[in-house]
Amino acid sequence: MPETTFNPTDRTQENWENSAAAKSLKELQDNPRVKYIVVIAPQDACPACQNLVGTYPKDQVPHLPLESCSHPMGCCAYYLPYLDEIYP
Q1: How far apart are CA 62 and CA 4, in angstroms?
Q2: CA–CA separation, 26 and 23 (whole Å)
Q3: Could you tell me whether strands 54-57 and 34-40 are parallel, antiparallel, or unpaired per DSSP bridges?
Q4: In a domain, 3, yes or no
């Protein structure tokens, strides 16, 4: 059986579920200390990624990489946790 590798241009649901971004998002969603999830993009990100920047409820976070991203190096947006509490 041929080995499958992650292809960042393949936007299928199966490919998303196996991506590093999906695993990161799932960990943040499963963490009870994370109240919201923040999408961040650098200043040189494309307009589509810049428009995505914001704070989202854990169940309404957009999938990354963004399909409509036009940055020559690919989507550079990423997730950060918005913590409900910092210390136990």
Answers
A1: 25
A2: 5
A3: antiparallel
A4: no
